[in-house]
Amino acid sequence: MLRWILIFLVIALIAAVLGFGGIAAGAASIAQIIFYIFLVLLVISLIMHLVRKT
């Protein structure tokens, strides 16, 4: 999943340099959504790990 974030980040940066605002904004928003999903899954995983230890 982190690989997808990096791919969309690179696409957004390249598009921003070339001046394609719509493509850059789209790729950046997709990368942001995937990043937040990853953070939620990380928190859930940490909570489950702590619950299983006790």
From TrEMBL:
This is DUF1328 domain-containing protein. One of its GO terms (cellular component) is plasma membrane. It comes from the Bacteria. It holds the Pfam family DUF1328. Keywords: Cell membrane, Membrane, Transmembrane, Transmembrane helix. The chain crosses the membrane at residues 29-51. InterPro entries: DUF1328.
